[in-house]
Amino acid sequence: MELLERRRALVEERLVEVVDGLDPETLSSEVRHVTLSGGKRVRPMVTILACETVGGEATDAVDFGVGIELVHSASLVVDDIIDRSELRRGTTSAWAEFGHGPAIITSDGLLGEAFALFSADPKATQVVAESLVELGVGEATELSSKPSNEAEYMTLARRKTGALFRAAAELGAIAADSDPFTVEALGEYAERVGVAFQIRDDVLDATADAADLGKPTGHDATLERPSVVQVTDLTPAEANDRARAQADRAIDALGTVDAVDTEARDYLLELAEFVVERER
């Protein structure tokens, strides 16, 4: 765990630097509320661990990791507006704290700072741009053409959540100057972890206690969102089995990668287990 804490500290330190450098102060304050109010930092940790797994250094990947966290935070700001959710990570969501206009500007600011970090490498910019296209298609599908069966749900989960996870891992591989096969293998690993994460998230929304989860529950049913328990006949236990299957395929993909740092790889393996067992 010491390795993870050191890596997380690198992310937090750089994140604070980016936020503190924003102007005007109003925007900096709003971005600070969104980005520094908690969060597991799963995606930037994937970026750093993927980089180290294939022989890079953690410091090589920190900017890309912070960038993908900013992109993720921007997407959450918009999600909370769409869902009318007033709570995020145990505190008020951006729109509930500042209003809809400032929240949208905050999301734009987050994306701008993220792409400033990615601009150091055209391949990084391309990877994230592609993930945002997928995310946009997923969000639009969720609002206008909801899935009605398991296959359609899985496509939505891949776009809505898996795409950013894929980008996170591919950014790490790019930071380590990996070959295309390695970039793709790490991307597949992370995409499947992301899908497993989303399935488990849906199950928790349907079954967990809001105080334990740190955000409101029952939103999927109330808003008729296409969660795995809303659009399929799967029970929560069966849905968890689907998440497990995705995690297992993620582990298989990771097994095709020539790992230089086996400790970092082992943490990626643990993440694949964590996303299907987490309780919040």
Overview of this protein structure:
- This protein has 280 residues and is mainly α.
- It is globular.
- α3 packs across α8 and α3 packs antiparallel against α14.
- β1 and β2 form a beta hairpin.
- The protein has 14 helices and two strands; from the N terminus they run ααααββαααααααααα.
- The longest helix has 28 residues.
- It has a two-stranded antiparallel ribbon with strand order 1-2.
- It has one domain: Farnesyl Diphosphate Synthase (Orthogonal Bundle), CATH 1.10.600.
- InterPro entries: Isoprenoid_synthase_dom_sf, Polyprenyl_synt, Polyprenyl_synt_CS.
List keywords for this structure.
single chain; 280 residues; mainly alpha; Farnesyl Diphosphate Synthase; two-stranded antiparallel ribbon; 14 helices; 77% helix
